[in-house]
Amino acid sequence: MEDQEMQLKVRRVSDKFTESMYVLANEPSVALYRLQEHVRRSLPELVQHKTDMQSWEEQSQGAIYSVEYACSAVKSMTNSSLYFKNIDGLLRQAISMKEQISNSQGRR
């Protein structure tokens, strides 16, 4: 009988000890400490990712500006086709006049 009683007391003590350890391990301050550890470990990596993303954004904005500038240059070239046609006509006229002058000087 004494053995069973002793085993029962040992079991109660170990159960109470286990319960106390469980409560202590899951105490809010321990949870906050673990959360702080997690933040301390992951924060530098997150800061690096943010810095990388900002750098990529700046590079992307530069590329976008370059592309938009090139597109506007191409559009303005398309709009200037009228001027190029006018220049072509004037050059043809000048060549024709030069040939006429050369022909008239060759006849003399």
TrEMBL record:
Q: Which Pfam families match?
A: BORCS8
Domain of life here? Eukaryota
Q: Which InterPro entries match?
A: BORCS8 (IPR019320)
Gene Ontology CC terms: BORC complex; lysosomal membrane
Subcellular location field: Lysosome membrane
Using the UniProt record, give the first listed, main subcellular location.
membrane
Annotated keywords:
Lysosome, Membrane
> Its family?
Belongs to the BORCS8 family.
Q: This chain belongs to which protein, by name?
A: BLOC-1 related complex subunit 8
What is the species of this protein?
Kryptolebias marmoratus (Mangrove killifish)
Q: What is the lineage of its organism?
A: Eukaryota, Metazoa, Chordata, Craniata, Vertebrata
